[in-house]
Amino acid sequence: MNVAHLTRQLVLEAPVRGPDGAGGFETSWTALGTLWAAIKPASGRERAGVAVSLSQVPCRVVVRSAPVGSSNRPKPEQRFREGTRIYTILAVSEADPTGRYLTCHAIEEVAA
């Protein structure tokens, strides 16, 4: 793999579940840190939601690697935030044989 051009600054966020006061739970998000990334979109699709249509764009987000167990190492169910854009992480794999970069397979959903 060539050197990745990490030109996008993303905030890595983790879900925090807490009681909602009615016997269930609600999810809020806490920032774990800022990572520089390269985002490569794939072809998307559109599907109908309850009140709006949702556009889903799968993408690969490449970031510098971090040791296993580090809070800066992305995991599935976490997400990246870039302003109002959200990228939900589905899976994480090493992007190169030397382990310098990680590829995060993610989905960006946009209400249209």
Provide structural commentary.
With 112 residues, this protein is an all-beta fold. Helix content is 0%, strand content 62%. The chain has no helices and 7 strands. The protein has a 6-stranded antiparallel beta barrel. A hairpin with a 5-residue loop joins strand 1 and strand 2. The chain is globular. The protein starts with 7 loop residues before the first strand and ends with a strand.
Secondary structure layout plus pairing:
Layout: E1 8-19, E2 25-41, E3 45-48, E4 53-64, E5 79-82, E6 85-94, E7 101-111
Antiparallel strand pairs: 1-2, 1-5, 2-4, 3-4, 4-7, 5-6, 6-7
Provide a compact summary of the structure.
The protein has strands at residues 8-19, 25-41, 45-48, 53-64, 79-82, 85-94, 101-111. It has 112 residues and is mainly β.
Largest sheet: 6 strands, antiparallel, barrel
Report the end-to-end length measured between terminal Cα atoms. 35 Å
Output the number of helix runs. 0
- Portion of residues in beta strands equals over 45%
Provide the helix percentage: under 10%
How many distinct beta strands?
7
Overall pLDDT metric: 87
Q: What is the approximate shape?
A: globular
The helix-strand sequence is EEEEEEE
Q: Please compute the radius of gyration using only Cα atoms.
A: 15 Å
Low-confidence stretches: none
Give the strand line-up of the largest sheet: 1-2-4-7-6-5
**Pairing-aware structural class of the strands and helices?**
mainly beta
